[in-house]
Write a structure and sequence with these properties.
The structure holds 2 protein chains of 2 kinds. By secondary structure, chain A is mainly α. Chain A is built from 6 helices and no strands. In chain A, helix 3 runs antiparallel to helix 6 and helix 5 packs antiparallel against helix 6. Chain B is mainly alpha-helical. Chain B has 2 domains: 75 residues; 30 residues. Chain B contains 3 helices and no strands. The longest helix of chain B has 44 residues. Chain B starts with a helix and ends with a helix. Classes of the chains: A mainly alpha, B mainly alpha. Chains A and B meet through helix 1, helix 3 and helix 6 of A and helix 1, helix 2 and helix 3 of B. Chain B: It comes from Priestia endophytica. Chain B: It is a multi-pass membrane protein.
Amino acid sequence: MSAEEKLTRENFPESPEKATLEGKNKFLGFWLFLGGETVLFASLFATYLALKDSNAGGATSQDLFELPIVFIATMLLLTSSLTSVYAIYHMKNFQYRKMQIWFIITILLGAGFLALEIYEFNHYVHEFEFTFKSSAFGSAFYTLVGFHGGHVAVGLGWFITLLIRNGRRGLSLYNAPKFYVASLYWHFIDVVWVFIFTVVYLMGMVG
Amino acid sequence: MTTEEKNVRGDWEYRLKKNRDEMRMQVVSFALMLFLTLVAFFAVSYDKYSAWFIVPFILLLGVVQVVFQLYYFMHMSHRGHGTAAFFLYSGVLVAFLTVLTFLTIVWI
C-alpha cells in the first residue's frame, strides 16, 4: 500500500502506524529513543536518590511535599494517558474527528498538570525559599522533576503542532505514524511520573 | 451488494468489534492503574505502617503500574514488538545499574 492511495475506512490498514516503510522506521527509531530516555531519567533518579538527604540545613522533603497536590497531578496525567489511548483507538477506526477531540482533551489535562507543577515550584520558592541553589537536595529535586515537566511541555507542544499542521489534511498513512509516536511519548511521560510520585514524593513523605 | 463488497464490509465490522474489545481491556487496565495509585497514596497517608514495609510495597505497586502502561497503553503485548522490547529493556538494564551504583558505591 502506498502513501498516496485514497483511503476509506474499509481499506484503512489495521496498523496504520506501520503500513509504510517510513512508519515502520519511525516506530523502531522511537523505541530506541525511549530506551535512551530511560537511561537519561535513570541518571537523574540516581543522582536524586544519592543527594535527597543532603539538605544543607534547609527544607527537607517532609517540610515541602503535600500529598493532595501530588495526587491531583497524578490523576490528571494518568487520565490524560487514557484519553490518548482513546485517540489512537479512533485513529485505527479511521475516525479523524474523534481522534482530534480526544487529543485535545489530552492536551487540556496535560496543561492542567503543568500548571499544578508551576504552582508547586512557585510555592516552594516563595514559602520555603527552597530553590535550585538551596542545597544538593534542591538541585537534584528541581533537575529531576523539572526535566519531567520539560518533557510534558515538549509533549504538549508536539501534540498542538501535529494537530494544527494536519488539521485539514485528514488522516493518512503519512500522518498516522506521527500521531501514534506522539502518543507513545505521552505514555512514556506517564511512566516516568509513576516513578517520580513513588520515589520522590511518596518515599519523601515516609522519610 | 456484490460478494466482494460484502466481504469488505464484514472485514470492517469485524475490525471495529476487535478494536472495541481491545479498548475495553484498556479501560480495565486504566481502572487497575487507578486502584494501584490509590493504594500507594493511602499506604503513605495512613501513617501506621513502618517505612521498611511501605517503601518496597509502593515501589512494587509502581512497577506493576508501569508494566500495565507499557504492555497495554503502549501496545507492547502486540506482535512485532520484539526489537522495541529489546531497546527498552537495554535501557532498563543500564538504568538499574546506574541507580544501583549511586545507591551503593557512590558516597557524598
